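step: validate -> pass
step: tokenize input -> pass
step: predict -> running
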Amino acid sequence: MHTLTATAPPSSRTVETVRLLLRLRATSDPAAVYEQLRALGPVLPVPWFRSLLVTGYDECRTILRDPAFVMPDTDWRDRHQPGWRAHPAMRALYTSLLTSNPPHHTNLRAGLAPLFSRTAVATLRPAVVELTETCLDSLAVALRTGDADLAAHVAEPLPSRVMCAWLGLPEEDAPVLTGLSRRFAMAHELSPSEAQLADADQAYAELRTYFEPLVRARGDAAGSGLLARWAARAPLDDHDFGVNAALLFVTGFETTAALIATLTRIVLERPPLADRLRDAPADEVADAVEDMMRRHPPAALVSRVAREERTLAGVRVPRDQLLHVMLGPANLDPAAGRSAAAHLSFGSGIHYCLGASLARMELSVFLPALLRRFPALRLAAAPEPCDGLAHPQTPRMLVTEQVAVGMF
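step: predict -> pass
step: emit ->
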């Protein structure tokens, strides 16, 4: 939806910026691309997208926290993207908690935030431990006959089953919800094609059909699942409950699946790190997970719009300007430091990721469990690149227990 023709001949820096942005779609290890983007400058005009790409840590943090920068919501899209309402997936996405602005966002989040506290998330830990072992059992069976796809056996089923347990949905529905989430998430990409949007619309229609019984029953909600507890504490209309119930699954699954795949690749490519974390204390594992997330955020970018004119790093930002905040380059900026609290991988400000504590817990359970169960696990082939920037989709990752010599 953002792909537009430049109104002036592009500069060499602009050409290089777009080239690097496209490379992010084709690399399994984006860190080098992040560094090259950041070296071009903290704020980069991209005429093709009529936007500014922001890579500096201070500038990105300002955009995420300053009320002068808001989500590109329905009002903004009505002014700048005529025709977007023709896509039901986009109508759902841009009226949800994920992309709305106050006061609507404030009202939606107020009912959910207590349910995502560290204390609340900690109650799910026994289920996460059990589900992790179940997925690792599946991986072990597959490895008996040769190479196995870690994405199919662990990176996708683990977070999808965790989200079913957390939301109070039947675990057997996880595979269907995973497939629908993958397709629907394309509506949030930087420049989806018409074919991708049409498929996202169909996926959203199926998600809506799935969640309709929950919408109808929410007045009589009972049980310990998050959706039941949310319905009991928040007066929501049918649209808000249905759309955000679906989005909670989509975002909780997609983000963690990408992180599981990325962290697995990192430790398998660095055997000394794997050896250190295999039986490390919990706080050391948590620190290592945090550092890997800092270097490899689950989403490459998030978008904001200037509500009023501002200046960033000497660049004028007019009112209504679209900005793409690049989380990976910002985290690598020396200005970010290396503190766990400083990185922007889960965002910052009022849209800080509600599920950050849950993702951290899942990863801290999964990583040492994987390394203990499979001390000889190795990559069987070069990892495939992720598909997507705003919601990177988990690539196939072939692993083996045989030590590969000269594989790559």
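step: describe -> The domain at 12-400 is CATH 1.10.630.10 (Cytochrome p450).
step: cleanup -> pass
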